[in-house]
Structure formats: C-alpha cells, structure tokens
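Let us practice reading a record.
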Amino acid sequence: GAAMVARALWALLAALRAGWCLLPQSGYLHPDEFFQAPEVMAGDILNLQVYYPWEFLSSSPCRTVVFPLMTSGVTYWVIKSLQQLDICSSCINSYTLLVSPRLLFTIFSFILDYSVYQLAPFWGADPWKALVLLAGSYVTLVFYTRTFTNTLEGLLFALLMVLVSSRNSSGSSAEPTSSSLIGVITTAGFFNRPTFLAFALMPLLYWASLIVDSQKSIKTLINHFLKFILCACFTASVFITADTFYFTSVSLDNLYSTSKSSLIDVIVQLHDKMVVTPFNFLSYNLNPHNLALHGTHPRVTHFTVNGVMLFGILHILAIIAGFKMLKKYVHQLMLVRWCYRGPPGLLVHSEGSPTLLLFYFVPLAFLSLFSHQEPRFLIPLILPLVLFSASPNRAVKWKLLIVLFNLLGALLFGCLHQGGLIPCLFHLEQLIHSPASSSHPQHYTLLFAHTYMPPRSLLNIKKTDMHVEVIDMAGAAEETLCQTVEQRASNFTCSDCHVFIIIPGTVTATVTKCGVSFKNETLIFPHLSMEDPPQIPVLSSGNWRSQLGLYILELNR
C-alpha cells in the first residue's frame, strides 16, 4: 500500500514538473540560465538581436558551444524549420523561445529519476521513497527544468554514478564493464563545466577500486584504463574541434579552398587556432581578482548556507550523520592503533552508506575551495543526498518540514524571484509586434533598471531590425538613472518614438524624483527583487502589491 501511494505521488509530481514548465514558470533564477545557451543560440540560429556574454566571444572563449548547440540550438532549429515549412506560421515567439529549451531540459531531468531508480537497490535505499524525495524537491522542479550548465552537470554526474554502480547476480558489487562510456561522460562533463571533476572524483575512485579488486590479470586491468583514456581523448578532440571552428575564423571552406593545402597544412592551421575552453575557464576562475568581480563569499558558504537553502533538513541530517560516522572512524582508528583490537577495516555500520556521504561531501569540500559560491553549483548533489536519505533504516521524521520547505522554495524561486521580468518581456514582445506597430513603423527604447539582465532574444527582434533599443542600467545609482531618463525625455526625435522604463515597485520612488512624467503605467505581479527588497512596514500596508510588482512606465513627451 505504501509503495502504491509513493508511485502515485511520484507520478503526480512528475506531471507537475512537466506542466509547470509549459505554464511557464515566471521566476528568473540567474542570468546564466539564459546567457549560457538560449540567448547565444537565438542569435546564431534564429538571427535574433541578442546579447553575447563575454564567455562566448572569440577573444575570450570560456564555454564550449557543443552543449548549447545540442540543447537550445536543436530546439530553435526545430521551431525555425516548422515555421519555414509553413507547418506553424508563428512558431517563433517569446513563449516558444522560452519554453522549447526548458522543455528539452525537463525531459532530460527524468534521467535523474531513472538514475535514482537504478541506484537505490545498489546503495540500500528505498527506490520509491528516494523518487518521491527527488521529484518533490524544489531543486528538481525549478533548477532541473532550467537551461543551466549546472543542470547538465547534475545529469552527467547521475549517469556516471549509474555506470560505476553495478551488482552481479549474487548481489555483490561487480566490476563495471563500461570503461569507454565512463571516459566519454567524464570528459564531456569536464568540457561542460571543469568543476565536474570535483563531482566525478569519488565515482572514478570507486570505479578504479572495483576494477583493481576484481582483476587478477594486469593485462585486463590495463585494458580497462586504456579504454577510458582513449575514449576520453577522442571525446576531448571532438569538443576542441567544434569549439575551434565556432570561435575562430577557421572553416571547412577556408581549409580546403585551394588544392595546394595539404593535410599537414590543415593540421597546422587548426593547431595554431586551437580553442580549449576548459583551460580558458580554469585560467580565468583560478585568478582571485576575476572571481572577486562576480562576488566573493566565505569558504563555508556552501556548507552553512547554500546546502541548507537547496536541500533544507536533508543537508543538516547529512552533516549530523557525517560527524557521527567520522567520530566512529576516529574511535575505531584509536582502537586499532593503541589496543590492537577491533576490525582491520574502517567501514563501520552506520545509518545509510558511508560511501554515499563521501559522494556528497567530497565535491562540496572541493567547491568550497573557491571564493565564489552560488547555490546552483551544488544542485548535482541532490542524487547522493536523496539516496542517503531514503535508506530503510532512516525513518522520515521530518515529512511535514520537508513538504513545507519545498513548497516555500518552489514559490520563492519558481514564481516570485525576479518573477515579473519574463512576463514583462512577453508583454513588450506583443506590443512591438502588434498590428499597429507593423503597419506604422515605430521606435522603441526599453530601459531596464534594477532588474536581472533581460534576455533580448525573448523580444523576438531580428538583427536587421533597428527600431528597438535595449538599455540595461542594472543596479544604477539614482543620479545615473535620472540622468539617463532625463536625457531620453528631452531627446524625443519622432512622433512614433516610445520610451519605456522597466523598474521594480520598490524603486519607483527614485524615478518619480527625476522630474519626468509618465502617460502609461503597467504593473506586472508578482516580482520580488532581493537586491531591492520591499520594506516590511510597507508590505503590511495597503501598498504591498506595488512593492511586489514590476512596473512598465511609458515616458511622456
């Protein structure tokens, strides 16, 4: 009966994951969910006006283009083809531009569910209990349905854990037979995000130990590692070649334009312009000055703040269990060293698997070495955490707290956090492409202030169209903001020019001091800006809706 209830609950949560993606989710987690794939591909494939982040400029290539092409690129190519074939006359719009890549990631997210179902028996966890914990987590509902490189990192980590965890018919650990696939996934993960090595370390050590323990022939042992290395090198060469063609002026036409070009000339030309994005990424991020530009945090932020923010009580329980296990290890070492008694091994009976805790805490420790620490960096750790938390001998005493925590997280990050910006872009896209605008060409200036970076691609403006100007003021000071607004107000050059200021309700008082007037005012609700949070006394008054909203203000002439 309990298993049937768990299956039904998982199915309901899985449907919620897919349905909420299509709705779509309005929360905006971080600019990287747009600017590490969809925005770039919208410019390259759909020829839309976009903002190319510095990582994708040929002068500083730090991100591989392979995964953006395989995800957002494929979905944009599909909707472009559908429109060109007249199967769908208006396939390309702000909704499809947002939802199509997210839908693909949502489908991919079920790799996590598959991995949990496969891994649970191996690690002594209850499969359906683990699946409900996974599917009910707001990390799965929100983060794993967004176009983050961290999402792909989590999926590759899950596949790696599946490949290294295998049992034979007797139920004992078996030697993994997929050395080639392990090499491919490890290298692909490294090119996606070099931090993948922190997650892959424990699975790879576990895999190596299984091979060493199960092999008596040196030849077979070498064969396993040789397969791993060869497949890793082949995968790396594919990524390097693709990135080199994308980021440099090298093209097949250039390479073979003259019959005089020999194979050696081609190889030399490619070598001279070779792009290895992970090394550029590491070179940039290992410089403390560069990391400081993106924000620095105490080294314990992942342990004390981000882990709790993402996983709640499960993270705290894992820390407690880890300390208990460490205490037992130390006690056993003392017995072995000073009393010469007790078991020779260090593996002691404890709640859950000690190895799973290492799979959780070792990556956490390595990521904590860097001073820039964001919560999304930890989302791949949900897999070992739910497996550890779902072991049969761990009674779930915190069901209500877990449910309330994930409801709050889903509401905050899936709906409220910068939640007005995407609907705002939908509204502006409809305004810009309205029949009135199409029949009488008009010029639009869109000035965004105190919001996250707006993804220009959602406005669906072709690169050849010059009638829309986007100005991102970020968190500009009052004086700078007013100066820009006043300048725009005094520079109306045509009767069909429109200037819109997009600003959170908590900052509208700043704009009203600028000495300009507005003729139209649109409020989009809800919108919560953590950079400009609403004041509690104001929220308790009748003005709370405006404080939790995003305003589109049209400047008067």
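A brief commentary: DSSP finds 26 helices and five strands in the chain.
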